């Protein structure tokens, strides 16, 4: 038989962290609505009825009144939200509506009906008194604000990316829920929270809900604002009424204080109020009848939960087996279900993202496959992770896998310590003999060198798949070897895992380097598997001060040309420090050497890889990515010759008095180079051009000449072993480059064992112009 004077239960749950009304227009004059409480973690397959019942006894707050009388306690008990600041957290007119009809305002809430034994009017008056009492602790009024559409759009992306949909249903473009089984409904939050108060809650959920049923997702202030804007962006008809702020009434405060004490609200919600009365003793938990009192169909002066038949059966299974000991694994299952950890993490054969939610688990590193988007399993985690790391990860979250877009949240130190204890007691590995590691640094140098060699590209090439001390080398970016291995992992697990990674995670991308205990690198460390594994561990244990392994290099930075030209002012292959590389849409590229004043390279295909000039000291050179490369003569490209047969001068452009004037960009970011040669100002404007019947774009170079006096310039357009005049201004250079020049303007001569293409430019009456086309002859390959 249950005690008739039942205490007030908690109005919060981590799964209903943002919880709120699907039917905000419900008022205290309506009959109480029957809506069963939702605990999201119970939807996970594999939980037996007893464990589900224990979770319900904890999540519904039963153990806050009904003593277990067992040490240590078996049920993971929950407390209600901190109500000291509830007045500044929710709208004033929301509180009485919720207190009068919790299930009607928040379908799925774990808060029971507390006033169901009263008439409609009495229930409304009692709810109003309780609301005034709770608001008296923090009288700062919550005021409405309008979310910004741009912030809401960002918040929608964030909501479906960082893990909110692990517990809550996804939403469509209009913000409406697309209900999924086992979801904690959010519904319409607008009647409860303002933008400011919801933002503050999301930034520090553990302050409002110390039991950590809503974990801390480590949102930045901007992210919290965006997420709040998204969740409050809907304006259904139920939320069109402007929230009303009713002045706090002293008489109602007094009545609410008395009611708060009489109904035992203190059992779940602690308030600094010395006037409250102590709660009466309640029936011990093992003697409860799930068909009567709080859990029965009849409403009275006690709290009332609208349980389903399945929930009552689960609670009954827990009560009937209450005196039977719980295994550590059952306690783990209870805690993981209560916090819905199983929505993200499998343990054993159960848990992990459900099929209808899997699409929301995404990654920044698709090359890692499923491991790159799904949170890691908790199977054997107590034998895998060092205790301090494990506690810190659960309590505060962690980002050891930055490629996961779903965040590991923080649940607080209390549950973290409990779970770490249980994991450590439960999880184990087969015995394995570990070799001794040198304590003296000097004596450990040979082992450290072996580990360095094994990690590098001459050994097992771990750096190809793993980040190393923050630097990415290969095509993948799995967990950082330096920052996580010896700080995070237990040495026994590390040794077992390297020997047989597939045993620990089927389908892993981790290679097997020790097949049947035999090393695949017999040339290192005498091929001794145990020695090699110990050496890798010892080497990585040095941390970030360790010598880099062979093969470390800057990650590739491939510059990709979009709809506009891309200009890189850095050293590039075959060009000095004053090289200017230009990539044009369509895949034609060039380099202009501002030092020698000459366009010296043209290529087709991809632009450049620039890591060596954008990292470190930037002392390297960018690498050309395209394969169809044509080289042109090193400048200076324009000179005055004493006579047509004179040799091309070897003097530098500086010695010749030539000057580079810079370049201008057109509307498509294409540069026009400007320089002075022989007192002639030259504007050199290359652009990409598509010709009919030609697959690739050509490079069309328009050269404009301005001079105060008449001049005759010579332009060395090409120098190669093969230069053939094809007629009509077309000249083939080498095997695959064709230039088109003004007919009769050029001549071909032999000089120094090479052929030269020289073009004469007559600058008369102050100006001249010439157009040169460059085309790659694919058919001549």
Concise synopsis of the structure shown:
With 781 residues, this protein is α+β, with helices and mostly antiparallel strands. It has 20 helices and 24 strands.
Overall description:
It is a single chain. With 781 residues, this protein is α+β, with helices and mostly antiparallel strands. Helices cover 24% and strands 16% of the residues. It has an eight-stranded antiparallel beta sheet, with no helix packed on it. The protein has a five-stranded antiparallel beta sheet with strand order 6-7-8-9-12, with no helix packed on it. α13 (387-396) packs antiparallel against α14 (413-426) and α17 (491-499) packs across α19. The longest helix is centred in the first third of the chain and has 16 residues, at 120-135.
Distance between the termini: 94 Å
What is the arithmetic mean of pLDDT?
Answer: 87
Strands across the major sheet, in which order? 14-15-16-17-24-21-20-19
Q: Write down the Rg.
A: 37 Å
- Residue share in β-strands: 15-25%
What is the number of E strands?
A: 24
Structural class: alpha+beta
